[in-house]
Specification:
The protein is α/β, with parallel strands linked by helices. The chain is built from ten helices and ten strands.
């Protein structure tokens, strides 16, 4: 799918509030359809596996699905797969091509424990959900918490490896969800002026600066490694999904422009850096978009995950 740059800019000029509301309304329709599909699968499995690359909007989408399920009388429990990381052992942990610990690898997860927990939850039995302490690089037994699902409850396991064959192969009845920005923006000749992957990089850059105090240069320099990890560990398994979300929003570049353009204008770019052309063209694209003031963005909008001020903010 592709969005028309002309139609986007015309909508921003003529009715910015209505355009922002329309974008949210369309996304909320996909949320409702997904929630109904998950509810229909409850008799087969109480497990939902949710995956997507960085900047895809997984957190907000998962919370929106939870809220819709709650309206249907189904209570959900969100669990981060990161808590199933194994305590880091420098001698046995997977490493990337630079020789550093590869935290993106699925083999950092305790797959045996994870699959055992899936099986127990589906049987209605109690588990102890672990807690991984990243500061100490180890799993904490003290901070684990019990979980037992009733007949009208589900567990949503969220993480980049949720759709990996190692997991889905042993949990075929689980409902599997994949989320990513999947639409480009094109001009009147059909030329791509803003790629779907650029949307995620712009989202990450704005979010990291606002909530993690990271300089844009840091986020952009990490992007090449992030994309490498996606191609290895996420994209190959997206077709395992029963439900696929396109989290791109027609109005999002117009909204992010006010935050992202200044950041990209002041990057210290070098032609030698990996993915230089991608970042360079992304930065050059912003002037082609009309600015949409964030005041028109609803508090429950997906875009609030990146610009802040939303009801789902922690």
């Amino acid at each position: 799918m592709a969005y028309s740059l002309k139609q986007i800019n015309d909508a921003v000029r003529t009715d910015p509030q209505g355009f922002a509301q329309e974008c949210d309304a369309n996304y909320n329709k996909t949320i409702e359809a997904a929630a109904r599909k998950i509810a229909d699968n409850l008799s087969k499995s109480r497990i939902v596996l949710l995956s997507g690359p960085s900047g895809s909007g997984k957190t907000t989408t998962a919370k929106k699905i939870e809220a819709k399920l709650e309206e249907m009388g189904i209570h959900s429990h969100a669990i981060a797969l990161d808590n199933y990381f194994q305590t880091v052992d420098p001698e046995t942990c997977p490493r990337n091509r630079e020789g550093e610990i590869d935290y993106e690898s699925p083999f950092c997860l305790d797959m045996d424990l994870l699959n055992r927990h899936f099986n127990l939850l589906d049987k209605g039995e109690k588990i102890l959900v672990p807690k991984f302490e990243f500061a100490r690089q180890m799993r904490s037994a003290i901070k684990s918490h019990p979980l037992q699902l009733g007949s009208d409850e589900i567990a949503i396991f969220e993480g980049i490896h949720a759709l990996n064959d190692i997991i889905t192969g042993k949990n075929r009845n689980a409902m599997k969800v994949y989320i990513s920005a999947r639409s480009d923006v094109v001009d009147e000749e059909g030329n791509v002026v803003y790629k779907r992957t650029w949307m995620r990089l712009a989202r990450r850059t704005v979010r990291d600066a606002k909530f993690r105090a990271w300089e844009p240069d840091v986020t952009v320099k990490m992007w090449a490694n992030v994309r490498r990890g996606e191609k290895l560990y996420i994209s190959p398994f997206k077709d395992n999904a029963d439900i696929k979300f396109d989290s791109s929003q027609p109005c999002e570049v117009n909204v992010l422009k006010a935050f992202a353009q200044p950041a990209f204008d002041h990057l210290h770019l070098s032609p030698e850096m990996e993915r230089y052309n991608e970042v360079h063209h992304l930065a050059e694209a912003f002037p082609r978009f009309e600015t949409l003031d964030e005041k028109y963005v609803a508090s429950d909008s997906l875009l609030r995950e990146f610009i802040g001020g939303g009801i789902y903010d922690d």
